[in-house]
Amino acid sequence: MKLRKMQKKKYEKMFEQVKQERDEIVLKTHLLKADAKDEWHKVDKQWEHFKSKAGQVGKEAKGASGDVSAAAKLLGEEIKKSFQRIRKTL
Known about the structure:
Layout: H1 2-60, H2 66-89
Helix pairs in contact: 1-2
């Protein structure tokens, strides 16, 4: 009888540990998804800005200094890195 009780307690303890681990992972994935969504909204706004300026930069690049081109390139690289971070979280 005692052996069965001990086995039952071990099983219950293992069950609770596995349940806790599962619950923590569920919470972390939920938070990760929320972080990815937040980053997505931020970078999507940057993308829209970049997209709207891309044509303008192309037209003005002939007469503009390298600063405009460099700023556009920097923004494009930042957006690309953000997309890569988001992809890794999915």
